[in-house]
Amino acid sequence: MRLRHKPWAKEKLEQHPQYVVAEPENLKGKWHEAFEKDQPLHIEVGTGKGQFVTGMAKANPDINYIGIELYDSVIVAALDRLIEADLPNLKLLNVNAAELDKYFTKNDVDRIYLNFSDPWPKTRHEKRRLTYKDFLKLYENILVDGGEIHFKTDNQGLFEYSLMSFSAYGLLLKYVSLDFHKSGYEGNIMTEYEQKFSERGQRIYRCEVKYQN
Ligand code: SAM
Predict the structure, then answer these.
(1) Which residue out of 68, 117, 199 has the highest number of ligand 1 atoms within 8 Å of its CB and is therefore the one to mutate?
(2) Number of domains in the chain
(3) What stretches in the chain show pLDDT beneath 70?
């Protein structure tokens, strides 16, 4: 993700507390209070400019969604989409996913989406990959028992690494596609990266994995 410094971004996020949760630690264990309806909660980690999570929230009004993004200069674009769509079942969080357990506790989250996560190809950066075992532990600590991770990427190396990481952790591989856009899957909502890479003819990999607790 190319980052452009936007000195006004933080202030804009603060001006929309109905969409961007200001003190997420206060909602730990009671996220339903942030939404109009008490219904399952799905989160996207590394939501970028929010095309996927906004599309999902529009398509599935019976599910609550949170888009989580580290950079204010990026999530501000997701905020613009949300202001436009004015969805009651979507919130945004401008936090680091490495600290998810500060904001969520066991059973808060029903499903986690990881889309086109940064690949961090160098071995010395393995710990930064969002499918590294420490992140899988973090996700387990906030998901319901039997919770799922749905993962899409264009990066074959990251996909192979992630399948091995999921498997070594003891996650059940429920669905694996090595060419997702040719798989006949219906109802896919594309992310920005997915749209860009598939328009260039690149193959998209996707899997669904489940915790066996
Ligand atoms: N999911 C979007 C898509 O598919 O178009 C964006 C993909 S982009 C390659 C990865 C995004 O994940 C970036 O916006 C990055 O800032 C965010 N990200 C990476 N590590 C993160 C972390 N630890 N916590 C929150 N967001 C993170």
Answers:
(1) 117
(2) 1
(3) 1-3
pLDDT at 5: 82
Task: Please report the pLDDT score of residue 100 as a whole number.
Answer: 98
Residue 61 lies in a domain: yes
Nearest to 119 by CA among 11, 177, 208, 193: 193
The atom of ligand 1 lying closest to the CA of 152 is 4
* pLDDT score recorded for residue 41: 98
Which atom belonging to ligand 1 lies closest to the Cα atom of 195?
5
**pLDDT at residue number 95:** 98
The terminus-to-terminus CA distance of the chain in angstroms comes to 35
Q: What CATH number is given to the structural domain containing 164?
A: 3.40.50.150
Q: Is 38 labeled as catalytic in the residue annotation?
A: no
Is 12 contained in some domain? no
> Which of 80, 101, 110, 118 is the catalytic position?
118
Q: Does a structural domain hold residue 23?
A: no
φ/ψ (deg, to 5) at 31: -65, -25
